[in-house]
Amino acid sequence: MTAACGGELRIFPDAHGLYRAVAAELVACATQAMNARDRFTVALAGGSTPRPLYELLASPEFSEQLDWIRTEVFFGDERCVPPDDVRSNFRMAADALLAHVPLPADRIHRIRGEENPAFAALHYVQELQAAFRCVDAPRFDLILLGMGENGHTASLFPGGAALRENVRLVVPQYVESQQEWRITLTLPLLNAAAAVWVLIQGAAKTGVLQRVLEGPFLPEVLPVQGLAPAHGQLVWWLDRAAAAALKHTPG
């Protein structure tokens, strides 16, 4: 089913079914990319929601289906903290997934959160351009994202300058509510991807999800509404608890 604000809705009875479905589809996406271009490029989401997915991908059932040598991992955003900090998106992904699969170290492209924010953003642009051999927005095979309770995605927060960026691909953003600097991919880069998947699980985000998918288009207030891949797929992966307030759902 198509969401009112764009994209496809996929709703599952519970978190277990949701994560297994995403893992299986990710394997299929990776296989298709490798068959077409001999590699799979994916940007990982941070936060707590994707951790069970990463742990599932690290399990033998799924990890043995992926050719990790031909996989390259990037990040959608990062807090400006060292990579071993408990708040680091890289550390979460490493603990849950990256340290448990045969992914070569040079295929992991982390954002250097320990550096000056402006320098870290510039460095990541250069790393992206080198990895994709391009000067324009690279086209990821897949970008995984989440959504905060205020409707933010990556580190694109309501009213933030990063949300309005339409030239730079990666920018620093000071998040007043968190009193911290972050580095984030911007909408021009996110919307250049072949596939953007938004993973939302649990009842805590039910109300904001209904506003995002069925309410007015207000991306300055609900930044996740700014996701609109020009030549790609947008999928909202939800469990039934997250989708409970939606008026129009599949089935």
Q: Can you describe what's shown?
A:
By secondary structure, the protein is of the alpha/beta class. The chain has one domain (8-201, 222-234): Rossmann fold (3-Layer(aba) Sandwich). It is 29% helix and 19% strand. It has helices spanning 15-37, 51-58, 60-63, 89-96, 117-132, 187-190, 206-214; strands spanning 8-12, 40-44, 71-75, 77-79, 142-145, 170-175, 180-185, 195-200, 233-239. The chain has a 6-stranded parallel beta sheet, covered by helices on one side. A 3-stranded antiparallel beta sheet has the order 4-7-6. Helix 7 (206-214) links the parallel strand 8 and strand 9. Helix 1 (15-37) crosses helix 2. The mean pLDDT is 96.
Question: Secondary structure elements and their pairing?
Answer:
Layout: E1 8-12, H1 15-37, E2 40-44, H2 51-58, H3 60-63, E3 71-75, E4 77-79, H4 89-96, H5 117-132, E5 142-145, E6 170-175, E7 180-185, H6 187-190, E8 195-200, H7 206-214, E9 233-239
Parallel strand pairs: 1-9, 2-3, 2-5, 5-8, 8-9
Antiparallel strand pairs: 4-7, 6-7
Helix pairs in contact: 1-2
% residues in beta strands: 15-25%
Tally of DSSP helical segments: 7
Question: What is the highest CATH level, the class?
Answer: Alpha Beta
How would you describe the shape? globular
Features of the shown structure:
9 strands; Rossmann fold; globular; 251 residues; three-stranded antiparallel beta sheet; alpha/beta
Structure described in brief:
With 251 residues, the chain is of the alpha/beta class. It is built from 7 helices and 9 strands; from the N terminus they run βαβααββααβββαβαβ.
